[in-house]
Amino acid sequence: MPHVLPPLAYDYAALEPHIDEQTMKLHHDLHHQAYVDGLNGAEEKLAKMRETGDFSAVQAVQRALAFHGSGHANHCIFWENMGPNGGGTPAGDLGARIQRDFGSFDAFQAHFSAAAATVEGNGWGILAWDSSAGQLIVLASMNHQNQGLHGSVPLLMLDVWEHAYYLKYQNKRPAYIKAWWNVVNWENVAERFAGATSM
């Protein structure tokens, strides 16, 4: 079955004034769709290779699969990590774990914001559960897939590719990050945390 672009659970303008309607339309309908198309294309090429036994271009296709597949997966989490009634701080088990692993919510927020702001070029700020260490970690991923940690489960993802913020914030990535905290859907992050820690 080919991959498809998931619909947003809220209106394009629902995250205003923090993330503008036009950016949401372009980001979801065009950019995310391009990753879906690229992923489907890569999988079709791999299927053809398996049929013919000709794997001469497998390196390039595997690279495309990782890039577009990660772009699709990351965006699926990103859209759900946000909502019109977002912001504030997490409560319950997630809030307690952030306190334990980072010292305080403020320390976590500062760490995450700095990691996202200093991604070289394009990428993502990520709060993840590291199952091998049994703790929450912050990652700064270049592009969609580089500098990740195998075995970690992404819980909260912030897209810092320029297409995510340039119409409203131009080159002021830290201003976009600061505004983004107002739309974080902590309920969704807590659900992901509960699922990751129950594995």
Task: Give the structure's gist in a few sentences.
The protein has 7 helices and 3 strands; from the N terminus they run ααααβββααα. By secondary structure, it is α+β, with helices and mostly antiparallel strands.
Core attributes:
Helix Hairpins, 7 helices, three-stranded antiparallel sheet, minor pseudopilin epsh fold, globular, 199 residues, single chain, alpha+beta
Provide an overview of this structure.
This protein is of the alpha+beta class and 199 residues long. The protein has two domains: 60 residues, Helix Hairpins (Orthogonal Bundle), CATH 1.10.287.990; 106 residues, Iron/manganese superoxide dismutase, C-terminal domain (minor pseudopilin epsh fold). The chain is 52% helix and 12% strand. It has seven helices and three strands. A three-stranded antiparallel β-sheet has the order 2-1-3. β1 and β2 form a beta hairpin. The radius of gyration is 18 Å and the shape is globular. The model has no long low-confidence stretch (mean pLDDT 95).
